[in-house]
Amino acid sequence: MSTSTAAYARDVRVTWWYTASSILFLHLFAALFWSLSVFVDGTVPALVLNLVGVAGSLVSGVLLLIRYRREPLDDGDDAIRRRAWPLVALGVVSAVLMGVSAGSLLLGVGFTAQALCLVRWRHGIRLRLVVLLLAVIAAAWFVDATRIHPDGYEVSGFALPLFVAMLAPLTATSLWWWDIVRELDRARRAEGRLAAAQERLRLAGDLHDLQGHHLQVIALQLELAEKMMGRDPDAAVEQVRAARASVDEARRGTRDLAARFRGVPLPDELANAADLLRAAGLTVDLLVDTEADRAPADVLGPVVRESTTNVLKHGGGVSASLSLARHEGAWVLVVENDSRGAASPVGDGAGLSGIAERVGAVGGMVDATRLGDRFRVTVRVPEEVPA
């Protein structure tokens, strides 16, 4: 389960980079190929104007994509959207410069439409906007294809104008697909939080039933012992002993319940640790053996939690990696992170000592090493750990 979770998290990031790079590639391809026609047939001022427009349009596209990636999926506040308008204005002005330099209305309208499609619009607006922009692009294409410019330049061919005309709908479709991926990722995370909440509620219910039963029995036994104290001391002592046995039984039941609750499979423990580190802003690589559920979770589970806490408290870096693999009759857990500036490495304190004590009790070993700006903790425990 943890392997699929880590793979899904990586897929989400890869999907974004694929989406953003595809949009920028199409943008740059269309701009540069149209610039080539200006370079061949245009004047030096027109070429300079075109290059300025291409540079401004590319900067606008990159910054708008960065904003799009960071903005929430919900419709959000209009104030957030208004902060994107200067970047849109840069894209529109750059598109106008490109269109003027090439003498093409389609070029200016196409790149203006793409800048507008890089904004996260309210729900339902994007589709209507794309339909409207397609109509405007078609009209601009028709004007370019039918009129003759005073300088004798005429839009010829079909492929490049079509490429520019499709920039806006392709951009909108790509970002719409990315939003779907983010929705699925958010739903997956919400499902995980719901499962954890349900598990806590189940534990609370079991604990209430267990303690409620035993406390009621103990109260009745003590009440009976109090009533029998005067006329039958021996029977009262027996009731007190029974109450003490009930206390021991309640203690054992609570301990067993806590052990069952803590018994999270080790793959899930590692996946939860990776999710926690990612939520803190770190880039995390997670590699888990396909048979990791056979590893001693009662030993390595607390080690994973302690190591994760140490990375968050003492790492100070931006990346981390967790791996669990079987090697030469032992399970090997490796937690590695980078530490920046004055941040202390993992293990400067009681954390590493506690890990070493826990692992040493089952015949395992711990090794902590620094490799440049990275700190690595390697934990090795036997495959067969006695209960």
Please provide a written account of the structure.
By secondary structure, the protein is α+β, with helices and mostly antiparallel strands. The protein contains 12 helices and 5 strands. The chain has helices spanning about 1-40, 45-70, 80, 85-100, 105-115, 125-145, 160-165, 165-230, 235-260, 265-280, 295-315, 350-360, and strands at about 285-290, 315-325, 330-340, 365-370, 375-380. The protein has a 5-stranded mixed sheet with strand order 1-2-3-5-4. The longest helix has about 60 residues, at about 165-230. The radius of gyration is 33 Å and the shape is elongated. The model is unreliable at about 1-10, about 150-155 and about 340-350 (pLDDT under 50). It holds the Pfam family HisKA_3. This is Histidine kinase. One of its GO terms (molecular function) is kinase activity. Keywords: Kinase, Membrane, Transferase, Transmembrane, Transmembrane helix, Two-component regulatory system.
Global mean pLDDT: 80
- One letter per element, helices H and strands E, the order comes to HHHHHHHHHHEHEEHEE
Count the helices. How many? 12
First-to-last CA distance: 25 Å
Lateral arrangement of strands in the main beta sheet: 1-2-3-5-4
Strand content: 5-15%
Number of strands: 5
- Helical content band: 55-70%
Unreliably modeled segments:
1-8, 148-156, 342-350
Question: Biggest sheet, in brief?
Answer: 5 strands, mixed
Judged by helices, strands and strand pairing, the structural class is: alpha+beta
Overall geometric form: elongated
| Rg over alpha carbons | 33 Å
Keywords: Kinase, Membrane, Transferase, Transmembrane, Transmembrane helix, Two-component regulatory system
Protein name: Histidine kinase
GO molecular function: kinase activity
Transmembrane segments: 16-40, 47-68, 88-113, 125-143, 155-178
